[in-house]
Structures are given as C-alpha cells and as structure tokens.
Amino acid sequence: MKNRKMVMIPGPTPVTRSIQNAMGRETAAFADPSFVADFKGLLADLKQMWRTQGEVFVVAGTGTLAMEMAVANTLKAGDSVLVITHGFFGDRYIDICKRKGLDVDVLSSQWGQIVPVADIETALKQKPYKAVTVTHVDTSTGVRAPIEEIGKVVRKADDCMFIVDGVCSTSAHPEYVDEMNIDILFTGSQKAFGVSPGLLVLWAGPRAMERRKTLGTIADYYVDFDNWLPIMHDPAKYFATPAVNLVWALAEAVRLIKEEGLDERCQRHNKTGKAIQAALTSLGFTLLAEKPYRAATLSNVIYPDGIDDAEFRSIAMEEGLVVAGGLGDYKGKMFRMGHMGNIDAHDVVCAIAAVERTLYRVGYQFKPGTGVGTLMRELLS
Ligand SMILES: Cc1ncc(COP(=O)(O)O)c(C=O)c1O
Q1: Residues 44 and 192 in one domain
Q2: Which of 38, 142, 149, 236 has its CA 20 to 30 A from that of 370?
Q3: Ligand 1: which residues within 6 Å by Cβ?
Q4: Pairing between strand 143-144 and 199-204?
C-alpha cells in the first residue's frame, strides 16, 4: 500500500478536517447576515488575541501582497527605510521598497545568523528612517529574528515604523503587536494558521494608522487601508469581494487556536521544533540557523556528505514525506521541513520515521531508530 503523503513543506501546511469543512461550505453572499457575523467575530478575535488597539485587515491575497500593503500605507516615495534581512524573504523587501521609490538601506546577515541588534541601533542613530522592516522567521534560512529587542530600539528612533513579516511565524511564535512595539504585522493563511493559501492578515497598530492619515491619497488602490477600513468595521459593506469560504476557514483556524490557547500553541511549537531539530541532528544533519536564533516553525537541514538532494527528496516523497528544497546557495545542499500549524505528535513521529526510511534507502549508515528515539525523549522530557 502506498504511504499517505504528509505535506511537511514550510507552507502550505496540513489543513485539518474541520478547516476543510469550513472551506467546503456552500458559498454565501458576502452580505449574508450569518457570514457578516462570522467575519465580525473573526476580526474581533484577531485584534484581541494579537493585542492591538489599532486595526486588523483580512484581505484576499498572499503574504507578498501583505508586504506591499504594509509599505504602501506607511511610506511615500523618497522616504528612507532600513531593511533587515536574514535571507530570501528579507531580501524581497529590498525589491519591493526600491520599486516604491524609497531610499533603501540594507543590513543583512550571513545566512544562518542574525544582524546584531546593536548594529540596528547604530544605523538608526545615523539616519532618520521612516521604517524598519524585518522578517520574524525567514523561511529560506530558518532564522528567527529577536523582534522584541529590535522593537525596543526602533521605538527609540523618532517617528519610525516597525514592520514585521510574520508569514512564517504568526500563531507559532509570540507576536503581541502593541506590547512589542510592532506597528505592522502580517501573515498569510497557509502557514501557521493551517488554512489553504489565499488570505492575508495584517495588523496595523495605532501609530501605523496615524501614519496612514499623513499620506493622503496613495497610488495603490487594492491595498489601501482607507478602502478596506469601512469593511473591517462593518463586513456587510462592499469594497472588493471577500474570499467568503477562506474567511470561514480562518475563523475555524482561530477557533482552534483559542481552544488550544495562543501561548500554549507557541509553547507547543517551541517544544516540537526543538525535538525535531534534536532528532535530525542525531541523524547526522546540520541545521543552518544558529541555535539561539532557530525558528520553531521549520528546520533548514544541511545534508551530511554523500547524500544527493534530488534522490533524497524523491525517495522521501515515496515514503510519504513531502519536504522543500534549499534556496540560494543552499539549493541542492539542504532540505526544508515545515512543522507549524495544526500538526500533532503523530505527524511529527511519522515525519522523522520517514526521514529514517529515506536515509536507509539512500544507503546512509546509521542506527535505525536514532532519530525517532531522540524525538521521543525530547517530546517526553
Ligand atoms: C517569511 C515569508 N515572507 C513572505 C512570504 C511570501 O508569502 P506568499 O508566498 O504567501 O506571497 C513567504 C512565503 O513563503 C515567507 O515565508
């Protein structure tokens, strides 16, 4: 019998049955009172759970559109922005900001490491930046930025927005918008929320909403806060058709998060991430991200000598485990395994067991059970 395929790439993540059911409902009119009530409830939960006195936007689109939305509503051509980058997705912001005609300065780390917070502080003292962007977890490297510390130094700068890309972290790593001095936080539905791709969620704190007011009419239409705000306050109104079934799916995802507890969910990710990473290390893999800055949402795993990436990933697929390849210089040298969202202990044990079966089939010398044993010890500790 063929193995069931477990999609363990860093997004889209497995979509659990109750979320699938929400997506499979008969589509309602966007002004249907029951849909409007569900959408309102979702928005209230998102604001309250991620703790902002500002606003939240749920809009059809992906994480990249949210990146554009953040910049379009807080910056105008000629403004200076400091992009902190720990990999491919941090770099994406350089491109986006340049196309918007911003004056872009970049602080980038070697892949696997972080930009020291002291360097960010120094840069902020040298030039008046209107915003700092940072990716909380860069999916290309598995590096988690110390956003709480960065938020403190950004807040000391005069009138500088702190924009955080939470696409690979939101609902798995703590992100409390106002308390962490975050002005804009955003994510996509397909990552730690465990919904299919297609929705962005963006929180804009009070300072970001104030900044928007200073910009007047902006060139961007679809992502303009001013166009969406009336709908976020009253979803019975129309600006552009909401993705009705995805909104229901996200509402179900948030219900599951409430049931688990957001803090408890972050703790679960922390424990599971560490256990998986210990298991992979015990099998002879090396993790790209340095230990103190390692994400809990995914593992970026460098092969031991002698393992061919294409062969490993195609055999892993036959064994029922779908993982992603490395990016940039790590293409062919690394695989990336997502472990975020609605995955449970069964999934985690099966994933490491599939890695072991794959290693056995590629002729790698190891003691079967090493990874699973390490994983179990870590999970039970
Ligand atoms: C950290 C990060 N930011 C932004 C994006 C872009 O999101 P999307 O592919 O949903 O446009 C991704 C996608 O994987 C990501 O991992």
Answers
A1: yes
A2: 142
A3: 11, 62-64, 89, 135, 138-139, 165, 167-168, 188
A4: unpaired
Q: Which domain holds residue 365?
A: 6-13+261-380
* Residues 242 and 290 grouped into a single domain: no
- Residue 32 has a CB neighbour count (10 Å cut-off) of 14
Q: Which one of 69, 167, 200, 202 would you pick to mutate in the ligand 1 pocket, going by the greatest count of ligand atoms within 8 A of its CB?
A: 167
pLDDT at 1 over 90: no
pTM: 0.98
Asked whether residue 2 carries a pLDDT value surpassing 90, the answer given is: no
The packing angle between helices 370-380 and 345-361, to 10°, is 160
Length of the chain measured in residues: 381
Do residues 96 and 245 both lie within one domain?
yes
| CA 109, 199, 270, 44 torsion-angle sign | positive
Closest ligand 1 atom to Cα of 188: 10
**For the segment 179-227, what is each residue's pLDDT rounded down to a tens digit?**
999 999 999 999 999 999 999 999 999 999 999 999 999 999 999 999 9
Q: How far apart are CA 23 and CA 17, in angstroms?
A: 10
Per cent of the chain over pLDDT 70 is: 100
